[in-house]
């Protein structure tokens, strides 16, 4: 059995984190980032996009099915439908629309 990185983690390794962090600093939000960071939110949304998830409930169910692998996917925060909804509502969407 292959014991290397997961495919999702390999794809996200190409994410320019320096540029992403600059975008987060450029568009600050009042939503707390102690347990669910901007990067966690981005990774959840990217995972949902790649796996064709259609709703917050669907995203939460899929990620909870992979609960033991979340750390290896790069997601450090707790995944809950309300957490995703609050983050999507209160954080500036321009963070994720920056073109490289």
Compute the number of structural domains.
1
* Oligomeric description of these chains: single chain
Query: What is the radius of gyration computed over CA atoms, rounded to a whole number of angstroms?
Result: 14 Å
What general form does the structure show? globular
Distance between the termini: 36 Å
Mean pLDDT: 84
Specify the biggest β-sheet: none
What structural class results from the helix and strand content? mainly alpha
Strand content: under 5%
Task: State the low-pLDDT regions, or none.
Answer: none
Residue share in helix: 40-55%
Which sequence of SSEs, written as H and E, runs from N to C? Answer: HHHHHH
Q: How many H/I helices? A: 6
Number of strands: 0
Can you describe this structure?
The chain is mainly α and 100 residues long. It has one domain. Helix content is 53%, strand content 0%. The mean pLDDT is 84.
Descriptors:
100 residues; mainly alpha; globular
């Amino acid at each position: 059995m292959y014991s290397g990185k997961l495919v999702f983690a390999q794809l996200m390794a190409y994410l320019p984190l320096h540029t992403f962090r600059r975008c987060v600093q450029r568009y600050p939000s009042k939503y707390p980032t102690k347990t669910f960071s901007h990067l966690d939110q981005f990774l959840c949304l990217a995972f949902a996009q790649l796996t064709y998830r259609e709703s917050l409930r669907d995203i939460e169910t899929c990620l909870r099915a992979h609960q033991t692998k979340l750390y290896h996917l790069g997601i450090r925060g707790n995944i809950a439908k309300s957490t995703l909804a609050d983050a999507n509502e209160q954080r500036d969407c321009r963070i994720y629309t920056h073109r490289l």
